[in-house]
DNA sequence: GTCTATACACCGATAGAC
DNA sequence: GTCTATCGGTGTATAGAC
């Protein structure tokens, strides 16, 4: 009624996810306890169970939220499918690197903690991850059909390019040698090399 | 049976490392308990402390053993430093991929469990990992000096190439689409693309 | 070299007061 | 919505018998 206790719930929920993300990214899912997360939020351990049925669901929700946001972000700025594959590849690489620099923690978790999901949860997350890989694979196929890309093996090139780009989140630091946009530009260049195509003029340095 | 009076310490030591490697690769360091490892070996948990002062040293020894073996294996078959950089790059890529397919578990652990090392142990392992990266970096520098490689940024190309190649161990399966030597050949091709050089004749398909 | 037994802290999760 | 208290179980690591 006159209580305002309901307003604190959503705020706490966000703090739980934020704290869990930070701690899991730093120490790993198995190494982080519910008590640690609760301490970080400033509540007791039992209170966490108002927001998640169990510990693993917390992990799954972080991963699913990340991958859904990744896919939605791409969908919101995806280039016209009728554009040349080279332009679409550049857009995809820029999107991927920028996103992985900006949201390194959730990217890291979604990549490293897959083995902590049970069978059903793994299948759901894996499906989302695959559909993201397919975006790149389709661009590479289009480029080969246009004759502008000359990769030998589309699936392997996709996996290699994703691995190469995602690796950025394992070493990127805000105070590193290169600013983010310089890193992105260099990765665009390397992606074109991998695909066997000539980089766009404005992507070259 | 009260005890295995005839059993050998060295044999048990090897079994402990083997079991720990398999379990940690599968479930992650933090998720594996000393009791689990002991059960796998067929001893009691307390007996493990005959072979390691604590749990983390078990992890560090697996990592250090892996990286030392990696560096020694390369040293044993490293090409003459006076050979052209292109030949040395091909040799390095073949070595790296073959090794990472053959010893996927230890490779996986050494890349995924770094955060479970304390400061001193991390520094020791990181030093070994760096010296491995420097092998590739030196080859790329030589190739640029020879004029056969045309990468824009040596350090970034090194990191990208290592990430691309090491990614193999995250998806490789014995019953996969391609046999190991076909995978290796395709990665040699992609490495030359990344370095901005022409592949050797015998590496092309 | 391996065992049994155990210390004792911490785990995930639940129950019920307020 | 958050608290305290608590359950049953497991964690790493050690002590001392044989």
Chain-wise SSE layout:
Two copies of one chain form a homodimer.
Chain A: H1 5-27, H2 34-41, H3 55-77, H4 85-102, H5 104-112, H6 119-146, H7 154-166, H8 168-171, H9 180-195
Helix pairs in contact in A: 1-2, 1-5, 3-5, 3-6, 4-6, 4-9, 6-7
Chain B binds a DNA duplex (18 and 18 nucleotides) through loops.
Concise structural overview:
With 205 residues, chain A is mainly α. Chain A is built from 9 helices and no strands.
Task: Note down, in words, how this protein is organized.
The structure is a homodimer of 205-residue chains. The first copy, chain A, is mostly helical and 205 residues long. Chain A has 2 domains: 1-52, Homeodomain-like (Arc Repressor Mutant, subunit A); 59-203, Tetracycline Repressor, domain 2 (Orthogonal Bundle), CATH 1.10.357.10. In chain A, 69% of the residues lie in helices and 0% in strands. Chain A has helices at 5-27, 34-41, 55-77, 85-102, 104-112, 119-146, 154-166, 168-171, 180-195. The longest helix of chain A is centred in the middle third of the chain and has 28 residues, at 119-146. Chain A is elongated and about 60 Å long. The model of chain A is unreliable at 1-7 (pLDDT under 50). At the A-B interface, helix 7 and helix 9 of A face helix 7 and helix 9 of B. The structure holds a DNA duplex (18 and 18 nucleotides).
């Amino acid at each position: 009624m006159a209580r305002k206790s309901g307003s604190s719930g959503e705020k706490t929920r966000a703090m739980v996810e934020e704290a869990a993300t930070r701690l899991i990214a730093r120490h790993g899912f198995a190494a982080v306890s519910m008590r640690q997360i609760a301490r970080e939020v400033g509540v007791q351990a039992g209170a966490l169970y108002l927001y998640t049925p169990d510990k693993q669901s917390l992990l799954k929700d972080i991963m699913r939220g990340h991958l859904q946001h990744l896919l939605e972000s791409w969908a919101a700025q995806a280039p016209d499918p009728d554009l040349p594959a080279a332009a679409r590849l550049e857009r995809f690489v820029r999107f991927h690197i920028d996103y992985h620099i900006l949201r390194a923690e959730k990217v890291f978790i979604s990549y490293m903690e897959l083995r902590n999901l049970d069978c059903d949860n793994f299948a759901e997350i894996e499906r989302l991850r695959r559909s993201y890989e397919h975006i790149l694979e389709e661009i590479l196929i289009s480029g080969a059909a246009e004759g502008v890309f000359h990769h030998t093996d589309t699936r392997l090139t996709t996996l290699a390019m994703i691995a190469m780009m995602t690796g950025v989140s394992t070493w990127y630091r805000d105070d590193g040698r290169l600013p983010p946009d310089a890193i992105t530009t260099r990765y665009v260049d390397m992606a074109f090399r991998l695909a066997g195509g000539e980089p766009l003029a404005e992507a070259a340095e």
